[in-house]
Amino acid sequence: MDGMSRWALGLAAAVSMVLLVVAGAYGFHRDEFYFIIAGRHPALGYVDQPPLTPILSAAAVALFGPTPVAVRILPALMTGLAVAMCADMARRFGGGHGAQVIAAAALATTGFLAIGHLGSTTTYDLFAWTVVLWLAVRLFAGGDRRLWLALGLAAGLGLENKYIIAFLGLGLAVGLVLARRWDVLRSRWAWAAVGIALLIWLPNLAWQAANGWPQFDMARVLAAKAQAERDTFLLELFLIGGTLMTIVPIIGAGRLLAARDARPWRTIAWASIVVVGLVVWTSGKSYYMAGLLPVLIASGAVPVERWIRRGRTLVRPVAFGAAALAAGTLMVVLTLPIVPAASLASTPIPDTYGEAGEQVGWPELVSGVRSVVAALPATERDGAVILTANYGEAGALEILGSDLPPVFSGHNGYWDWGPPPAGSTVGIVLAGGGWRAPATGDCTVEGRVDNGVHLSNDEQGTIIQVCRRLPADWAEAWPLFRHLD
């Protein structure tokens, strides 16, 4: 990245540093538990995702120990690198050092910061989009055509992480036609990129085909859930886009679509329109579009820099700086573990950004289950199993409660890892989120989960039951426990 602004690179490094400093302030997120456990059951695919994030999550814990920091080191570094690539795209779009700083500052105020705090499929997905678009910016301006091979590699790895990047691929294909980039379509290097991406994706596609394409079932469930929450879609886009900084990617999209000096990158403008249309049409979640932010912000930073330079006083740079600072502060406080966990319940943060609350209370959940297990007679404790409503509970109990009975769940990929062994006599059942264990007979309530900070999250108040009439034939009963969401 020769010619990069040192200030922009400093902002990128600062983003990574902040994410690393706060990585362990709360605790694991439920999804992080699931990814770690999935990685310990290596496969070419799972019912709800390809294998890359589970592999990386399990490897991180194996290397650095079972802590939230372990699974968040790589996401923190990747997020800082995405900020640097955004600044570099602004430079390639014709911006000076000011545009690079504007691009870096604007991206640091978006949902990239929140997503970069967690080790999730979305974190790696956004990075894959950023790399693909960063390479596309260079290629569409006449860069070394061998970069298509790197683009194909990035796209293939992205497909092994989350299928949503296929929307970007389709968008770019449509964009090339609408922008009349016949030079690209005739290039053997571009077609080699398509071949590389498909070759990398092939093992997961084969797994999906061999298992009846469960991802389609999962997609329908997620689409229905997203449709039910559609009333908050625009607000989520405003927050993901950086609140006061949302204007920058909007300006950037308009520039790529209409500006004469942006003609080499018109393909990306059309691709962005296609991606937005596909997300809306398929009832996708708002953050499915977030991968477009780096390139759109980079494009928008150029006219914003020009606007600031045309000012004859310090009013414009001060106004932009104040807006960026306000947006960044809001994003940090809202999405990073800055507010002490004991005070979260008294703030609007859990209602505005629910993922914050989902990082609190897991040790208390494990402690509550441990107390119930300890109260069992020794004869029952030896043959006991634990059944949970969701993969977050199951993962927390496996990772934080190694001295507990074996854990099972019918939620998503956990169901594929098998039913309890034959002869299991007693079940400790966590019944939360409206889920009730089928075929378990009469159960007694022996405890409730209490996170100790009065925080209303998905696990607070979950019932801990003891069930003593477990199914005699688990092979027959186990299908009843399966649920996708």
Q: How would you describe this protein?
A:
The chain is mainly alpha-helical and 485 residues long. Helix content is 59%, strand content 5%. It contains 23 helices and 5 strands. The chain has helices at 6-21, 30-39, 52-64, 68-92, 97-108, 111-116, 121-140, 147-159, 165-178, 182-185, 188-210, 214-228, 233-240, 247-258, 266-281, 293-310, 315-335, 349-352, 354-357, 362-374, 378-381, 391-400, 474-477, and strands at 384-388, 407-409, 426-431, 443-448, 463-467. A 5-stranded mixed sheet has the order 2-1-3-5-4, covered by helices on one side. Strand 1, helix 22 (391-400) and strand 2 (407-409) form a beta-alpha-beta unit. The longest helix is centred in the N-terminal third of the chain and has 25 residues, at 68-92. It is globular and about 80 Å long. The two termini are 42 Å apart. 49% of the residues are buried.
